Amino acid sequence: MAVYLHEEDLPAGVLGSGPIAVDTETMGLLTPRDRLCLVQLSDGGGDEHLVRFAPGSSYDAPNLKAVLADPARVKLYHFARFDLAAIEHYLGVVAAPVFCTKIASKLTRTYTDRHGLKDLVRELLGKELSKQQQSSDWGGTELSEAQREYAASDVRYLHAMHGILVERLAREHRSEAAQAAFDYLPHRARLDLMGWADKDIFSHES
Ligand code: MN
Asked: Structural domains in the chain?
């Protein structure tokens, strides 16, 4: 089990088959303004791969894009909406089909309003995740050991949680509703990029 750091693209053939856990780190929350710095991936086998993009990157990453755009590979996220927008804006691919652990959590863990990754990992897996580096500078020339570990840990538990949440969705008869929401996420992310980020177009309110 190791964390691998790659520059500008994923090497070919480093990921096993099946679903891929994906996360991104950016310079901030405004996607068109705040560049994509890092894409983290895990195939669930115990290793994490971090792909870093330099300032001014062309984001010409054919191996990474092929994995993200592969319609045969489910991508596991926690809060897919943000990652899908960043990936589409900077890498130009729709990283679907999607499973979002945050949405699955909201549809099943109706006994709590704590749906953050840290809360979910603690409750479902009994593990403690550090969020200390969340707001750090991902654009620097060197990523610290703490940053690499934090970035890797964000994709480390998504496969295990996916397994549990699939069962919970089935138990509560919400698998179909969840799938419909997952299928909509790339479209929701595009609306964010188009300027409707803060508007709920389904709401009666303007
Ligand atoms: Mn993250």
From this structure: 3-196 (3.30.420.10)
